[in-house]
Amino acid sequence: MHNLSPQDFLAQMLATQTSSIAKYQFEQQTVWIKKAGKRHSIWLYRFFGIAAKLLKLQALTPVPNLGGYQSILTETHRLQELQQRGINVPELLAYNEEGLMIADVGDAEVPSEQLESALKHSASAEDCLRLYKQVVDEVHRIHQKEVWLSEAFLRNMVFDKNQRIAFLDFESDPGQYMNQQLCFARDWLCLIFSASIYLKSHDVLEQGSSYLYATIQQESKQTQNAVLSATKLFNWLNKLPLNKFGKDGYRLTAVLTVLAYLKALM
């Protein structure tokens, strides 16, 4: 495997790789190879699409990840586009019809760290709030560049070797299904759904919501209204005994509280 080009290395590894994503060493750096998977069923997407339409929740319209070569093309295009706009995403090293290869954003001395883990295990309430504000600022900075993420959940964010936030997973593109302002709102909703539980566990829900509100206020009215419209989807949850649903109930309670704060402030 010596002196292989990135393209040849990708082709050789894909020939035997069985998992959807795997880590390798290539020319003294860590790389990740994503293999095209089976096409995903579109029936579930259609079901939630109808629900979003009936409830007039355009920002929550499901964005299909069809898998296969199409997902590879989408991620390739999105990585190239975001990198050109100055967004911190993994470097695309090679791709073909079967998969793609990206560089790890960490290194041997400073490995990448999952942002969700960092927020969850914050040493203090102050640290949790600081990290959350950092994420909010970074998402807003991306929007100022007139681009959006694909799935802005904490699980798709990591700290790189320079302790900057890097963004992962671009197999789908919301911009193919909704306008720019709704894509922005979708980013905020993904963040709310994934981060609220950690704000609640560190008792900084109100402070975090206030900071999020002040940031969203800097975006368009359509984006603000689309974020607030999500309360329609969760209104009926207030009638349920969420405390009996374990961790999921705890998470939903946190999300509802953040949305309630935003609604009151707006």
From TrEMBL:
It comes from the Bacteria. InterPro entries: Kinase-like_dom_sf. This is Serine/threonine protein kinase. It comes from Acinetobacter populi.
